[in-house]
Each structure stands twice: as structure tokens, then as C-alpha cells.
Amino acid sequence: MASLVPKDKRQLRACLICGIVQNHHVFRDAGCPNCERLVKMAGQSDVVADCTSGTFDGITAVLQPRMSWVCKFAHVNNYQPGVYAAHVAGRIPEDIEDMLAQNGISYHPRDGSADE
């Protein structure tokens, strides 16, 4: 469990697509464990800045996402184990949202605006 909890809390960011919380340098170096095949954050500081936010709240540590009703409720049950934010401030750029739509993926903003 300790490996799932980010150590440097000053540089934490949450993915605007899936909500996983990691250090900025992890997104920059390895990308998002859930979204990398589509968004390609690794090595792209500008994409990391566009697709993550440092403003988020309500975190949940997830070990077995497929077995958790909380994960199902939060729509993270098909994602990798990790720490997830309940709400993430901001939205992805329109061009990335269009790219997701072209790949058959519906973007659900994690800032709560979709609930309104």
C-alpha cells in the first residue's frame, strides 16, 4: 500500500480524464497508467499540464478496483490500483476531447460539471 501513496505531496496532480493522483514527475516520466495509450503524456510536459490539475479533493486509495463498489460508483473500477481524486478542477482541451470521442471514449469531466 505504501507504494501507492505519493511521497511528495507538493507536486501532486490528478489526471483530468481518470482522476489518478501522482507526482508531476511521474506523469512526465511514465505518463498516466490508465490513459497513456490514448493521451501520451510521457515525455510531454505540455500534455501533462493540459491533462492534469493540481487542484483536486476527496481522495481514495484503491488496491482492487474491480472488486470495489466504491470504485464502481466512482467509475474507476476498470483502472489500475492507485490513489484517485473524487473531484478534479479543470477540463481537458477540446482537441483531446475530440480525439477521445474519435476513439469511442466518452469524456466525463471530473470537476462535477457533468452532474449539473
Automatic annotation (TrEMBL):
Q: Name one GO cellular component term.
A: DSIF complex
Instruction: Tell me the GO BP annotations in alphabetical order.
Output: regulation of DNA-templated transcription; transcription elongation-coupled chromatin remodeling
Cell membrane as UniProt keyword? no
One Pfam family from the UniProt entry? Spt4
Which terms does the record give in the GO molecular function aspect?
A: RNA polymerase II complex binding; translation elongation factor activity; zinc ion binding
Q: What SUPFAM superfamilies does the entry give?
A: RNA polymerase subunits
Classify the source by domain of life. Answer: Eukaryota
Give the subcellular location. Answer: Nucleus
Which key words are in the record? Elongation factor, Nucleus, Protein biosynthesis, Transcription
Spt4/RpoE2 zinc finger domain sequence ranges: 12-89
Give the function comment from the record.
Answer: The SPT4-SPT5 complex mediates both activation and inhibition of transcription elongation, and plays a role in pre-mRNA processing. This complex seems to be important for the stability of the RNA polymerase II elongation machinery on the chromatin template but not for the inherent ability of this machinery to translocate down the gene.
The UniProt similarity line reads: Belongs to the SPT4 family.
Protein's UniProt name:
Transcription elongation factor SPT4
Q: Which organism is it from?
A: Coemansia guatemalensis
